[in-house]
Amino acid sequence: MPDLFSPFTLKDVTLRNRIVMSPMTMYRSVDGLMNDYHVMLMGSRAAGGFGLVFPEQLAITPDGRTSTSCGGIYNDDQIEGLKRVTSIIKDMGGVAAIQLGHTGRKGSEVKPWEGGRQLAPDDPNGWQVVGPSAIPYGGKYSYPVHELTVDEIKDIHKSYAQAARRAYEAGFEWLEMHYAHGYLGASFFSPIANKRTDQYGGSLENRMRFHLEALDAVREEWPERLPLTMRLGSDDLNSEGVQFDDSVVAIAKMKEHGLDFADLSIGFNTDEMKDVPFAQMAFMVERGTRVKREVGIPVGVSWNMGLPAVADRVIREELIDLVFLGRPALSNPHWPVWAARELSHNDPFSLVPEDWAWWLRNFRAHNECIGWPALDEGARKVA
Predict the structure, then answer these.
(1) Closest C-alpha to 143, from 127, 157, 159, 158
(2) 314 — phi, psi (to 5°)?
(3) Which of 34, 310, 327, 335 has the fewest Cβ atoms nearer than 10 Å?
């Protein structure tokens, strides 16, 4: 029986445990480049025991970024900084993962703590946002959307392929396509955002065509021996949008096109969502289990998975295969070690590099002074 700390092998890659640091936009890049901040952030989480470590979503084109302060992988000059990130992750015992994406009609923003507003296309720091149809997202995303032509779609697929080449050159060993959270891939999948009448719109088969062609393009550059995965906006929580049944069909089709693993999330193609489950513990697990069972593909999910007992249980019961942690990874660089202690792991310090582990195992002072919170008996009993 696996548990949260069991190794996980996919293709030629083995993770030391089932704990993943999710991609999170940090707004610390200049010209899309990774820098000392990203080396610090990713290296510390790998050193803290995370098995798979993602930097933020990396844009495949300059206009695919959320803002001018976001990371990219759209030119070869960005490879050097990415190599620094993959090198420190590997040196600390983790596997370096990359998420390729394009924000589509939700791009051209200012930083969220500066208001998060969308900038006009003619603003010096803004650009013309694009989508499957000329439909603004709404709310703060109010500027006109350019409807992509078929030729422009083909160019985007070429950009995915070139980004995959750069990712391999930079040393990443796990590649995820971002098709969720209202970004470009998600908007092609959703009837709310996609009103096209050509081969990329209308039927489910047509609405997933963007995804399949992108997967095919990436696989031409990404080695077969390395995992090719996807984060899918699997439910819009709106009767007019993506329904989860559609996503199960789509993932099965993506598997035929070389998909190795499904990372499930919400579509976020509209703010008009019904019966939102965001306060519920581990609410994506049930959906993940269904995909794992019906499609026969490994699955990971995020959303409210930060209690160690919950994360461990869903792995032990083989409901999903990997646990993705976003904010818990930001709030606690050593979340895996803390979780191991909460779950009575026989050697929690085995999750950190050996030099750190030596010092921590040989602690000779008062146990409560080592820097860990007191054990939470309540959290340990959550099931």
Answers:
(1) 127
(2) -70, -25
(3) 327
- Map out the domains of the chain as residue ranges: 8-381
For the question of residue 183 being annotated catalytic, the response is: yes
Question: Which top CATH class is 8-381?
Answer: alpha beta
> Where do the H-state alpha helices sit in the chain?
36-47, 79-91, 150-170, 184-189, 204-207, 209-221, 244-256, 285-295, 308-316, 327-331, 335-342, 354-361, 377-381
CA 72/CA 50 separation, integer angstroms: 23
- Exactly one of 137, 141, 160, 183 is catalytic; name it: 183
Name the one residue in this structure whose structure tokens are 């940090």: 26
Residue 163: how many other CB atoms lie within 10 Å:
30
* φ, ψ (nearest 5 deg) of residue 225: -75, -10
**Consecutive 10-residue runs of the chain (383 residues): their mean pLDDT?**
96 98 96 97 97 98 97 98 98 98 97 95 96 96 97 98 98 98 97 98 98 98 98 95 97 98 96 92 96 98 96 98 97 95 92 92 77 65 49
CA dist list (Å): 72 to 19, 140, 235: 25, 24, 27
Residue type, 77: D
CB 54 within 8 A of CB 21: yes
Q: How many CB atoms lie within 10 A of CB 125?
A: 12
The whole-number pLDDT of residue 149 equals 98
**What whole-number distance in Å separates Cα of residue 261 and Cα of residue 210?**
18
What phi, psi does 284 have (nearest 5°)? -85, -10
